[in-house]
Design goal:
With about 525 residues, the protein is of the alpha/beta class. β1, α1 and β2 (about 50-55) form a beta-alpha-beta unit. Helices cover about 35% and strands about 10% of the residues. It has helices at about 35-45, 85-90, 110-130, 140-145, 150-160, 175, 180-190, 190-215, 235-240, 285-300, 310-315, 340-345, 365-370, 415-420, 425-435, 440-450, 460-465, 495-505; strands at about 15-20, 50-55, 220-225, 255-260, 270-275, 305-310, 315-320, 330-335, 355, 375-380, 400-405, 455-460.
Length: about 525
């Protein structure tokens, strides 16, 4: 039992924030990034009385997974697409002339292929200038020396390029199985590309920590997201094969992660991620614990509050045979539970943690969450099923140590939910009754309900603040079509919206200054 079971709680603050992934920011470069618009949004948050900015995982994404931030090539590296061309220009890595032929990017959706092609061309030019420098910048040297995950990650990416994007388990045997002499030889042969990827991560790091400092100055806490699982084809699995349940012959996952049939899918979901080799309570796999320790240490460097995705999977996880047709063929397997978080206690000491405790939640999951003082999640779209004891109804909350959302990145927008003909009419009637409204501005009604609750934090997706419909949804679970692409045009982020949020935060005692 931890010495202070509430050291991770949010009960010492009452505030409000916005859920908006960085790629959804306005930007002239085809995708939201860490440039001027990120600073503008920090100003918007401060002026709106907000105290938190929540976003999705920050790792590199790729086309094969529809650029899902939950299927990254690394749990440690930053997404190069978040690097701002303005930053490259302002720090002398590229010239204004090299930015003159910018494509006319689409304003409302990220077209990842176009954006990737353009930004990679800028990175190549910046790297050429970097290589021409007579002396390696001191910051780069320190970054490389003090970033323990960097060598494995950059070698993995360079090898992926060499083998034309093949997954690592299809690489030549000695490389796939990480024969030390073979890897040393490959690192020597690929040193130029490895250095390129180290340079890109250095630039991301420099820009990220400048952004984080701007948030700190404005009193905005950054909420980061850690997916419970990682992609099979990732630097994480390749470099730490002993942490995962892999077939010793093929090096591919024997079982994969998913969830049983639920609100989102009648047949459940197969996520395809390999499962951890946790060991037992008496004999835990120390390699997995060490990897999780490093992972959370890394995220704690980047953000102020951590949301752990699919927290339920630590108590028990849905194990699906790798060749199963649907997730319904899976079964519940006991997870590491308190053993893991006790081992990590020193690492995450005094770090506020939000446990994504949605879906099929058991008393054991609640007990695990409460034992370590983690905040839970409450989602208003799940509240109106007609059950008077529904735990998502604000008047049923039993603790302030929770975060209330109108919806999450996996939900329909609130307006989209309300207009969806498949949503039960009684649910909509209950939503109107709960907010004493006629439903003409259901997104504002949900904001008021959330802000009025006893939850320590009220986090609203930007789409719901703006009252946008289903065409602005961020993700459709179980599909890779048109996900993660929504962007907000700058004309929607107005002073009127800011004033509305400020007035609401003031009325419900959620002003930043009241934390």
């Amino acid at each position: 039992m931890p010495d202070n079971p509430h050291c991770h709680s949010l009960t010492d603050q009452r505030g409000a924030g916005i859920l908006l992934h960085l790629t959804s920011l306005p930007s002239p470069w085809g995708i939201g990034d860490l440039g001027p618009e990120a600073e503008n949004f920090l100003n918007f948050l401060k002026e709106s009385g907000q105290s938190c900015w929540q976003f999705l995982p920050l790792g590199p994404t790729r086309a094969v997974h529809g650029h899902s931030p939950y299927m990254s090539t690394s749990s440690f590296a930053g997404n190069p697409l978040l690097i701002s061309p303005d930053y490259l220009l302002n720090h002398g890595w590229i010239s204004s002339k090299e930015l003159a032929d910018k494509p006319d990017f689409y304003q409302y959706l990220v077209r990842f292929k176009e954006v990737s092609t353009y930004k990679e061309s800028l990175f190549a030019k910046a790297f050429t200038k970097f290589c021409a420098e007579p002396v390696e910048p001191e910051g780069f040297t320190k970054f490389c020396a003090n970033t323990p995950w960097l060598d494995d990650y950059t070698l993995y990416v360079a090898l992926g390029e060499k083998f034309s994007g093949q997954p690592w388990y299809e690489w030549p045997e000695k490389i796939a199985r990480r024969d030390p002499e073979t890897l040393e030889a490959q690192a020597h042969k690929l040193s130029h590309r490895i250095n390129y990827h180290k340079f890109i991560q250095f630039i991301f790091s420099e820009q990220w920590f400048a952004f984080k400092e701007k948030a700190r100055i404005r009193g905005i806490k950054l909420i980061g997201d850690v997916p419970i699982y990682v992609a099979s084809d990732s630097a994480d699995v390749w470099a730490h094969q002993g942490c995962f349940q892999l077939d010793p012959n093929t090096l591919q996952a024997k079982f994969v992660a998913g969830v049983p049939p639920d609100y989102f899918s009648e047949t459940g979901q197969i996520w395809g991620n390999p499962l951890y080799k946790w060991g037992s309570e008496n004999r835990p796999n120390q390699a997995v614990i060490n990897w999780w320790r490093s992972r959370l240490q890394r995220l704690a460097e980047l953000v102020d509050i951590i949301r752990i995705d699919h927290f339920r999977g630590f108590e028990a996880f849905w194990q699906v045979p790798a060749l199963a047709e649907t997730a319904a063929e899976g079964e519940w397997i006991q997870g590491p539970g308190a053993m893991l978080f006790t081992a990590l206690e020193e690492t995450i000491k005094n770090l506020p943690i939000i446990a994504e405790d949605l879906g099929s939640i058991t008393p054991a999951v609640e007990e695990l969450k409460d034992r370590f003082g983690f905040a839970g999640m409450k989602v208003l779209q799940f509240a109106f099923d007609g059950q008077t004891d529904n735990p998502y109804l604000p008047w049923n909350f039993t603790s302030t140590n929770c975060v209330i959302y109108s919806g999450t990145h996996d939900n329909e927008t609130t307006l989209g939910w309300y207009l969806d003909v498949s949503v039960d009419k009684n649910s909509k009637e209950l939503a109107r009754r709960a907010s004493n409204s006629n439903g003409n501005a259901i997104h504002l009604d949900f904001i008021n309900l959330a802000y009025a609750s006893i939850a320590a934090l009220a986090i609203i997706p930007m789409q719901d603040i703006l009252g946008f419909g289903s065409d602005c949804r961020m993700n459709h679970p179980g599909s890779i079509e048109r996900n993660w692409a929504w962007r907000s045009a700058p004309r929607f982020i107005t002073n009127e919206i800011s004033q509305m949020l400020l007035d609401t935060a003031t009325f419900y005692n959620r002003l930043q200054s009241n934390k």
